[in-house]
From TrEMBL:
GO molecular function, one term: catalytic activity
Species this protein is from: Candidimonas nitroreducens
Protein name in UniProt: Enoyl-CoA hydratase
NCBIfam families: PRK06210.1
InterPro entries the record matches: ClpP/crotonase-like_dom_sf, ECH/Chromodomain_protein, Enoyl-CoA_hydra/iso
Family annotation (Gene3D superfamilies): 2-enoyl-CoA Hydratase, Chain A, domain 1
SUPFAM superfamilies, A to Z: ClpP/crotonase
Domain of life the protein comes from: Bacteria
Pfam families: ECH_1
Family the entry assigns: Belongs to the enoyl-CoA hydratase/isomerase family.
PANTHER family the UniProt entry points to: ENOYL-COA HYDRATASE_ISOMERASE FAMILY PROTEIN (AFU_ORTHOLOGUE AFUA_1G01890) (PTHR43684:SF4), PTHR43684
Length: 270
């Protein structure tokens, strides 16, 4: 599979997806959107991939929808069937839509936000499991400045990450937020010098691939993303079911063995 507007590479157990329209600040087009989803699904299906790193080429992560496409975008495009295809029939439909599919991927998605993340670029980062930012990163919802609304579930996910007051601020003002302010409000977990960002993201991805059980990571990711729809009792019931299964898994046996034998783990994800 070849791509025009992204690059895709696998390093060890890590798939690196890079948005590659640097002359347009990696703004989204229909081609880029389609390629990003195809690449994400490719990584999800690859048994040799255990984590995904998403970043941008050049000085931006993703500046949102390309204005040249947005200007001629038909209103019904947002609900076009080709964008709403299911990723996994065993996962919640909420995580099968045009931009909300990262939570349905059974592997951690790490956004290495190297520069501007505006509009849909910020949406992509929000649906990731980890967000690391360069000191040069800038975040903005942008929608209110374009006469638009809180798109693609951002009104649901943003306050869950930064709180209601911060979400109201970011959405209604569309102001630009620095990486340090983003960290202070919990939007990102780490802020790094630009030259260290990708290395830090790869280190995290490698740790998630080798040091801990890929099977455990997959199950816990699903538990965390589905918990907003569950009562405490439902979350406990699911946890008990998953615990019963995990105690019979190869990764559990390996987890005990490598600890007792004082050696590095060799998890198979099974």
């Amino acid at each position: 599979m070849s791509f025009e507007q992204i690059s895709y590479a696998v390093e060890g157990y890590v798939a690196v997806i890079t948005l590659s329209r640097p002359n347009r600040m990696n703004a989204l087009t229909k081609v880029l959107e389609s390629e990003l989803r195809d690449a994400t699904e490719r990584a999800a299906r690859d048994d040799n991939v255990r984590a995904i790193v998403l970043t941008g080429e050049g000085r931006a992560f993703c500046a949102g929808m390309d204005m040249e496409e947005l200007e001629v975008l038909p209103p019904d495009d947002i609900r076009a069937e080709n964008w709403m295809r299911p990723y996994d029939m065993n996962r919640r439909a909420d995580y099968q839509t045009r931009y909300s599919y990262f939570p349905a991927v059974p592997k951690p998605v790490i956004s290495a936000v190297n520069g501007a993340a505006a509009g849909l670029g910020m949406v992509l980062a929000l649906y990731s499991d980890f967000r690391l930012a360069s000191e040069k990163a800038v975040f903005s919802t942008a929608f209110a400045k374009r006469g638009l609304i809180a798109e693609h579930g951002i009104a649901w996910i943003l306050p869950r990450i930064v709180g209601h007051a911060n979400a109201m601020d970011l959405l209604l003002t569309s102001r630009k937020v620095t990486a340090e302010e983003a960290k202070a409000m919990g939007l990102v977990s780490r802020v790094l010098p630009p030259e260290q960002l990708l290395s830090a993201a790869m280190t995290l991805a490698t740790e998630l691939s080798a040091i801990v059980s890929p099977r455990s990571v997959k199950v816990m990711k699903r538990q965390l993303w589905e918990s907003p729809y569950q009562s405490l009792g439902e979350a406990i019931t699911l946890a008990n079911t998953e615990m019963f299964t995990s105690l019979q898994s190869d990764d559990f046996r390996e987890g005990v063995a490598h600890f007792l034998e004082k050696r590095a783990p060799n998890f198979l994800g099974k």
